[in-house]
Specification:
This protein has 580 residues and is of the alpha+beta class. The chain has helices at 42-45, 118-127, 164-200, 220-225, 228-231, 239-271, 344-372, 376-395, 400-408, 426-435, 473-476, 506-515, 518-525, 532-544, 555-566, 576-579, and strands spanning 10-11, 14-15, 19-25, 36-40, 51-64, 67-68, 70-71, 97-98, 103-105, 107-110, 134-136, 139-140, 147-156, 205-207, 235-236, 280-292, 299-301, 307-314, 321-322, 330-332, 443-444, 446-447, 459-468. It is flat. A hairpin with a 2-residue loop joins β1 and β2. The strands form seven sheets. A six-stranded mixed β-barrel has the order 3-20-4-18-17-23. The chain has four domains: 18-49 and 295-468, DNA-directed RNA polymerase, subunit 2, domain 6 (Dna-directed Rna Polymerase Ii 140kd Polypeptide, Chain: B, Domain 6), CATH 2.40.270; 54-157 and 279-291, OB fold (Dihydrolipoamide Acetyltransferase, E2P) (Beta Barrel); 171-271, no CATH class; 485-579, Alpha-Beta Complex (DCoH-like). The longest helix has 37 residues, at 164-200. It is 37% helix and 18% strand.
């Protein structure tokens, strides 16, 4: 269970999901009003919060009542341009850059004798084509998504013939497994033959392969003259030594056999069909990766529940800067602290500021050491940072090289851990700030990046841990023109996943009523929502280039009438004409 290497979200074997950034607590032209957050362009340029997201899209070819669905490149009524990223099997290439609406996997489904739409009738009459008996049900990239295809997996049912793409993926997988097997075998041989060499070198050989005299001593030259396989034929006189060689040979053969068996088992698994759900003949999964930089609308948070949305990305030169010219990375609103009482974030900022200051001191001492060769300033800076007790325990006994290495690892800031419920007290924070050479208030003089003028008051500045949350504006942004409607109420569906509309609820209706916006309200509640006849008329008038329409009865009203009838009250509507 020991960590042997850092992964994408760890640092020195510890979980590290965020980044340390330089933060100032101050208002900035209203851009950090109500928990908004202002960030510097440096964060984008240095890819501080850039992440890679891999989306998985899958499509299944089923066996339907009308016949099996087919994954193919031959799709009806689709131009060559739309098929440019597909191979001959109808599956997208790895490395293809895809946009919203692009076909990832071509699929056709047999259709029954369905009535033709007027457009189809017209096309048939013009081009005289016979009606195709299949319809296009291809997997397309959903609206708003884009990226690069990084992997494709094809799953086939037992007994179903594999297409060219599936065979190619299978070949690549088998080749990869063979390379792994060869590498493992090479490591095993290197290890075993090194052990064999140490066992037999300098010993007398009782007998051996052709050209080796009985009783001759085994030397490096003798072994180099023989092939590795012949080393096992060198028999030693001592019983115990001969047994050790024999045991090593048996171990080598057993491990080699196990390695080959493991390889064959894996290959068999790759070549075998897959267990798919009932009715599914074939399944294709496409993985699309996209790189997302931080942008306005993304959500970030600190460690203390202090979350917010980025309002603007500001050029580095416009950000507030410190007396030494360092621009801050993030500007947070101080009003986010008092009412919420999460003062931990301020203490964290102060401790981070002190840790960074101590790191700068160590860096300066190292530069002095490189110029003069005197280690004393580095030792003093490390003692100042860690305190006498920790310094004596962990650092005092080290040689010069390892001491300098330890110092170099903390030049960006001395790591600090603070236990839960027993964290750094005010006195500890003050002590750390003093050791770093800062004012005990933890505040610094800050200048306006746009005018160069000093701000009227000192500002709390420090290092803070900031995390990027998985609420990205790219995943949330959504727009709809026409789309699917609910069957019962005939109102547009809701939500991005259903390509739905924005709900105009009771409160929004009250607002429009209060403004007296009668015409807006009328079309919101009828032709833009669930007046079926009205919707069609609006479409027709737009096509004809007219700009007048009539609003009818919303379908939801008819639903209400039906529900009232269900209660046993016969409610009927009278038209105005009939009424007269």
């Amino acid at each position: 269970g020991e960590v042997i290497a850092d992964g994408p979200a760890t640092d020195m074997g510890e979980l590290a999901l965020g980044k340390n950034v330089l933060v100032a607590f101050m208002p900035w032209n209203g851009y950090n009003f109500e928990d908004s957050i202002l960030i510097s362009e440096r964060i984008l340029q240095d890819d501080v919060f850039t992440s890679i997201h891999i989306e998985e899209y899958e499509v299944a070819a089923r066996d339907t009542k009308l016949g099996p669905e087919e994954i193919t490149r031959d799709i009806p009524n689709v131009g060559e341009e739309a098929l440019r990223n597909l191979d001959e099997a109808g599956i997208v290439y790895i490395g293809a850059e895809v946009q919203a609406g692009d076909i990832l996997v071509g699929k056709i489904t047999p259709k029954g004798e369905s009535p033709m739409t007027p457009e189809e009738k017209l096309l048939r009459a013009i081009f005289g084509e016979k009606a195709s008996d299949v319809r296009d049900t291809s997997l397309r990239l959903p609206p708003g998504d884009f990226g690069t295809v990084v992997d494709v997996r094809v799953f086939n049912r037992h007994g179903v013939d594999k297409d060219e793409r599936a065979l190619q993926i299978e070949r690549e997988e088998v080749e990869r497994l063979a390379r792994d097997r060869d590498d493992e075998l090479a490591i095993l041989e290197r290890n075993i033959y090194a052990r064999l060499k140490s066992l037999i070198i300098g010993k007398a050989a009782v007998k051996g392969p052709k050209g080796v005299k009985a009783g001759s001593t085994i030397t490096e030259e003798l072994l180099d003259a023989l092939s590795r396989g012949q080393w096992w034929q060198l028999a030693l006189g001592e019983e115990a030594e001969a047994q050790a060689v024999e045991a090593l040979h048996a171990q080598f053969e057993a491990q080699k056999k196990a390695l080959v068996a493991r390889f064959e088992d894996k290959v068999e698994k790759v070549r075998r069909g897959d267990d798919l759900p009932p009715g599914v003949m074939k399944m294709v999964k496409v993985f699309v990766a996209v790189k997302r930089k931080l942008q306005a609308g993304d959500k970030v948070a600190g460690r203390h529940g202090n979350k917010g949305v980025i309002s603007k990305v500001i050029p580095c030169e416009d950000m507030p800067f410190l007396a030494d010219g360092t621009p801050v990375d993030v500007v947070l609103n101080p009003l986010g602290v008092p009412s919420r009482m999460n003062v931990g974030q301020i203490l964290e900022t102060h401790m981070g500021w002190a840790a960074r200051g101590l790191g700068v001191k160590i860096d300066e001492a190292l530069q002095q050491y490189r110029r003069s060769g005197d280690l004393t300033p580095v030792q003093e800076a490390m003692r100042l940072a860690y305190g006498d007790e920790a310094y004596e325990d962990a650092l005092a006994g080290r040689d010069e090289a390892s001491f300098v290495e330890a110092a170099e690892s903390v030049t960006k800031g001395v790591p600090i851990a603070t236990p839960v419920f027993d964290g750094a007290k005010e006195a500890d924070v003050n002590d750390a700030l003093m050791r770093a050479g800062f004012d005990v208030s933890g505040q610094s003089v800050v200048y306006d990046g746009r005018t160069g003028e000093r701000f009227a008051r000192p500002v709390t500045v420090g290092m803070k841990y900031v995390l990027k949350l998985h609420h990205l504006v790219d995943d949330k942004i959504h727009a709809r023109s026409t789309g699917p409607y609910s069957l019962v109420t005939q109102q547009p569906l809701g939500g991005k996943a259903q390509f739905g509309g924005q709900r105009l609820g009771e409160m929004e209706v009250w607002a429009l009523e209060a403004y007296g916006a009668a015409y807006t309200l009328q079309e919101m509640l009828t032709v833009k929502s669930d007046d079926v006849a009205g919707r069609t008329k609006v479409y027709e008038s737009i096509v004809k280039g007219e700009d007048n329409f009539e609003a009818g009865v919303p379908e939801s009203f008819n639903v209400l009438v039906k529900e009232v009838r269900g209660l046993g009250l016969n409610m009927e509507l009278l038209d105005a004409e009939e009424d007269e």
